[in-house]
Here is the input.
Amino acid sequence: MRANYGEPLRKYLKQQDIHEIIDFGDLPVFQTATTYPCILLVSPNSKEDSLLKVTTVKSLDFESLGVYVTENHQSLKLSSLGDSGWNLGSEAEQNLLQKLKTNTVPLGEYVKGKIYYGIKTGLNEAFVINEETKDRLIKEDVSSAEVINPFLSGKEINRYMTTYTKNYLLFIPWHLHKP
Here is the structure.
């Protein structure tokens, strides 16, 4: 859908009549392999500005894929699918995304290409704590709040949103004075 190597295939498919796309994203359709499966229903000869039925499957917890698609699909104009990557969001989502792209500076440009890995604790079990532990430490010593910060791991950061699990990082700066 979005990988650079898929551009020739996307260009070819846009020349066909795409009737339907069922996108499973990164759901574990095949339990022993990491894949990004989708189902395409296509016939030859593109109809310019035709509408296609798009379903983004959010869960594998359904009895019938046909029923799930009927209840969760949306229509999308073929012309809204760009060669460099396909966004299967609704028209409103695509308009918002375009507005964000037009009126913002990309992160890579903002940080002048200096994007790094992030925080490596060396021992998450010691430095990443839950909310209960955070509250207990602050209750025992109020100054603990100075070194406890909200923490998100990579798996909690998704496209356009985060899933906050209420974890905290004990971050003790090198320059912190000992009492």
About this structure: The first helix runs from residue 7 to 14. The beta strands are 17-23, 38-43, 51-56, 74-77, 128-130, 148-151, 157-158, 161-162, 167-170. The two ends are 56 Å apart (CA to CA). The CA atoms of residues 74 and 154 lie 30 Å apart.
